[in-house]
Structure formats: structure tokens, C-alpha cells
Write a structure and sequence with these properties.
Helix 10 packs across helix 11. The protein is of the alpha/beta class. It has a five-stranded parallel beta sheet, sandwiched between helices. Strands 7-6-8-9 form a four-stranded parallel beta sheet, sandwiched between helices. This is ABC transporter substrate-binding protein.
């Protein structure tokens, strides 16, 4: 086994071994608060911020002694999401937070009884293959979405790069919501007169090579709220910045790592909103099966350093990333 694969396997094994160990580790059997399972798809700043906001909201609602967390990170391995979720079910958690699409899919498949809230999920209909969707899933699953109007993403590109000819669309083919966003934004951009070319990669191992190919054929690159890119922004930055090709990313993590600007949501606030909904469900104040998926107001943000490096002028109405 290659050293990189061995390291990844060991890291995944360690993460899974910790999946059942949360802030309540070591508590005695008399604990009568709520136990909440949290599964993150992989490690990157946007998902971490959503988890932080979620936990803060629940601790504020129930106190440090009233809630404990079992946490697992799948480190980008889809099968590990199911393993972590199965551990939560065996533990008898009171609620599951599925942070991103793969954990949501795993949780929805694994239990119809434990309330499941998703967050950092772009489109629930795509993630759960719902077909007709009016905003209420109608099962034990609901949550919050990081979706901003995709036509606004296309309009942002038009505002910042009106003279560009070709837009490269860089995304992971294994993430259904990335595929959905790329297809939607592509239609919008082509309606504006841009030529678009899709550049799909399968995992982080071929991201750098595909990003280079996208640079070679594009005036600028659009990346949706893609978790694999968000966890590997340095790989993309090492290609696009030297090549002088600007990136419009779907979330603030991508923008801060390799992009110039985006329209997005505040992931910490998204997590807090999810935590507030979780508190209502745990108290019995809200029925998860009747709870519509919730959204935040979008924000326009930019990366001042990358804009300066690439000579991109940002108009008024954008907030610099901290």
C-alpha cells in the first residue's frame, strides 16, 4: 500500500474509532440530557463552521450538562458515512446532524425514526432523489440548505467578468449536488452568451490535473459548493493563481482558498439555525416531518488577496473575507 493510502486509511480508522466519543465521554449512566450525533462528510472550513454553530446553539438551549455530542468525520469516504451513522443508531442518539450530502443520504437510508437534520446540503430533492418537492420532505428528515439562487451566481460572473468568453465548470462527479449546480449555472451562463466547458474529476487525486486542463481552456472557472474542492483548495490555488485564471467559488471556504468572489451564506449562522431547529424538535415543539427546509439570506464576498494578485476589480456591495 502506498504511503498516502496507508495514511488515509489510518486517519479514517481513527476518525471512526472516535465516532461514538463526544463531549459526553466519561459521563456516568445517570446522564438524562440529549445525545446528538454529528457526521461531517470531510474536513474543511465551511463544514466545520456549520458544526460549530450547531453545537453552540444546542449548548445555549440546554446548557453544557444538558446535551452531549458524538462526532464522526468520514474524511471524504462515502462508505464511512454509513458506518458513522450506524454507530449513532446503535448508541441510541436522540437526533442526528448530517453535515453535507453523503451523511444526509446515509442517515435517511439508515433510520426512519431518529430525527435527522441536514446542513450544508445544497438541494434536498437532488440529494434524496425526491422528484416533486415543495420544501417539506415529510419524513424524519429536514434541515437547512446552503443554496443561494444559482441565477445569482451566474449574474455575479456577468457582473465581474462581462468580457470573458469561456467559463470552465470544475466539479466532483461523485457529488450529486455539484452536478446539479453545474448543470443549472451552465444553462444560465449559456443564456447570457458565455461558452461553457465542464471539467469533472472523480476525487482529490485527479483534482490538480483536471484543474490544469480547465485553466488551459478557460478565461475563468466556476466551482459550485463542492466538498472535495473545499477540502483541497490549495491544490486548485497552486494551479489557477500562477495561470492568472480567476475562480468564482460556491462557498466562502473555496473563495478564501482559491477564489476571487462568490455569493454564499454564512455557514456558522447556517449551523446555528440548524441547532435552533434541533432544540425545537428535541423539546417536542416542532414535528420534523412538517418542518420545511430552511435557507439564509445570501452574501456577496470577495478574497482581497487573490483579487489583487489577479487584477480583479470588485465593485461596491461585496464584503471582504476575514
Amino acid at each position: 500500500m502506498h504511503k498516502e493510502l496507508l495514511s488515509a486509511a489510518l486517519a479514517a480508522a481513527l476518525t471512526l474509532s472516535l465516532a461514538g466519543c463526544g463531549s459526553g465521554e466519561g459521563a456516568d449512566d445517570s446522564f438524562d440530557g440529549y445525545t446528538v450525533g454529528i457526521c461531517e462528510q470531510m474536513e474543511h472550513v465551511s463544514l466545520s463552521e456549520a458544526t460549530r454553530g450547531f453545537k453552540d446553539a444546542l449548548v445555549e438551549a440546554f446548557g453544557e450538562d444538558g446535551v452531549r455530542f458524538s462526532e464522526g468525520n468520514a474524511l471524504g469516504e462515502q462508505n464511512s458515512c454509513a458506518t458513522i451513522i450506524d454507530g449513532f443508531i446503535a448508541e441510541g442518539v436522540d437526533l442526528i446532524l448530517a453535515n453535507a450530502t453523503w451523511p444526509l443520504q446515509a442517515a435517511a437510508s439508515a433510520t426512519s425514526e431518529i430525527p435527522v437534520l441536514g446542513t450544508s446540503v445544497t438541494d434536498y430533492a437532488t440529494a434524496l432523489d425526491l422528484g416533486e418537492f415543495d420544501g417539506v420532505i415529510g419524513t424524519n428528515v429536514s434541515g437547512t440548505s446552503d443554496l443561494v439562487p444559482l441565477e445569482d451566481q451566474a449574474a455575479l460572473i456577468k457582473e465581474l467578468f462581462p468580457e470573458a468568453g469561456t467559463v470552465g465548470l470544475l466539479y466532483c462527479s461523485g457529488e450529486p449536488n455539484s452536478v446539479y449546480q453545474v448543470e443549472t449555472v451552465r444553462a444560465e451562463l449559456e443564456g447570457m452568451g458565455y461558452a461553457c466547458e465542464a471539467y469533472a474529476f472523480t476525487d482529490a487525486n485527479d483534482l490538480g490535473a483536471v484543474a490544469q486542463t480547465a485553466c488551459d481552456g478557460s478565461d475563468l472557472i466556476y466551482i459550485p459548493t463542492d466538498n472535495t474542492v473545499a477540502a483541497n483548495t490549495e491544490t486548485v490555488a497552486n494551479v489557477v493563481i500562477p495561470a492568472g485564471v480567476p475562480v468564482v467559488g460556491g462557498d466562502p471556504g473555496i473563495c478564501s482558498g482559491c477564489g476571487v468572489a462568490t455569493i454564499t451564506c454564512d455557514y456558522y449562522e447556517l449551523g446555528r439555525l440548524t441547532g435552533e431547529l434541533a432544540a425545537e424538535i428535541l423539546r417536542g415543539e416542532t414535528d420534523v416531518s412538517a418542518l420545511p427546509v430552511q435557507y439564509l439570506e445570501p452574501l456577496k464576498v470577495y478574497n482581497a488577496e487573490n483579487c489583487a494578485a489577479l487584477g480583479v476589480e470588485i465593485p461596491e456591495g461585496y464584503t471582504p473575507l476575514g
